[in-house]
Amino acid sequence: MSSDRTLVTVSAGLSVPSSTRLLADRLTEATVEALETAGHTVTVKAIELRGHAHAIVDAMLTGFPTGDLSAALDTLYAADGAIAVTPLFTTTYSGLFKSFVDILDKDALRGLPVLLGATGGTARHSLALDYSLRPLFTYLHADVLPMAVFAATDDWAGAGDQVNPLPARITRAGADLAARIAAREPATPADPFGSTPSFADLLARGGHSA
User: Domain containing 133: what range?
Assistant: First the structure.
């Protein structure tokens, strides 16, 4: 049965253009293609952390995200699936990426299918996906996909792993995420007034008496 799905991408690239954003876009395209092939319509929303850097620091200091950052968080929390991609520095995720994760509601990603990706200079840094990035989202109780995608500099030129080249890894990861999203009940945003009694309920309880 077809349905609408919302896919959110979070990328923490620092430069413009960014290989991190490029990887996020390629993973998004593969996921959307797989979902549309299965008969679903997809809405894609991108969160580029570079544009929220100052607001993320402010939220860490005050404990309250505001403005566009608050809206971005609400978008992520209401998603049916997410792609999170970070550059690797000194063998781990970037400080900007970690700061964003630190301001997330600790229960908001529970059960959310998440595909992880990372970029770095050489393939030897790819293990950071499993010993650094994966535990971060496991702690948040996200449904982290077994497959993650690392892109080294040589991968973009087609000079990387010829047995398992980057385009093939992207296609497979996108298909895996699409399957997780399709198997899940579509996200329904919480009604902020859902627990408020109606006027009719108040009258039935005698709320009309003086």
Answer: 4-204
Could you give the CA distance from residue 39 to residue 33 in angstroms, rounded to a whole number?
10
Q: Quote the longest CA-to-CA distance of the chain.
A: 80
- Select the more confidently predicted residue: 200 or 167: 167
Tell me, what CATH number does 184's domain have? Answer: 3.40.50.360
Pair of tokens at residue 35? 């979902």
Q: Under a CB-based contact definition with an 8 Å cutoff, are residues 172 and 147 in contact?
A: yes
Query: Which residue bears the tokens 């948040």?
Result: 140
Q: What average pLDDT score do residues 175-192 get?
A: 79
Q: Is residue 38 part of a domain?
A: yes
Q: Cβ atoms within 10 A of the Cβ of 37, count? A: 10
Q: Which of 66, 64, 69 lies closest to 53 in space, CA to CA?
A: 69
Number of separate domains in the chain: 1
Assigned token pair, 76: 């992520």
User: Band of the pLDDT at 15, cuts 50, 70, 90?
Assistant: confident
Segment 164-170 mean pLDDT: 88
C-alpha to C-alpha distance for 60 and 54, rounded to whole angstroms = 10
Q: Which residues, listed in sequence order, are joined to residue 8 by a DSSP beta bridge?
A: 45, 82
Judge whether 174 and 65 are in contact, CB under 8 Å.
no
Q: How far is CA 107 from CA 9, 112, 191, in A?
A: 19, 10, 17
Please give the helix or strand (H or E) that residue 143 lies within, else none: strand 143-144
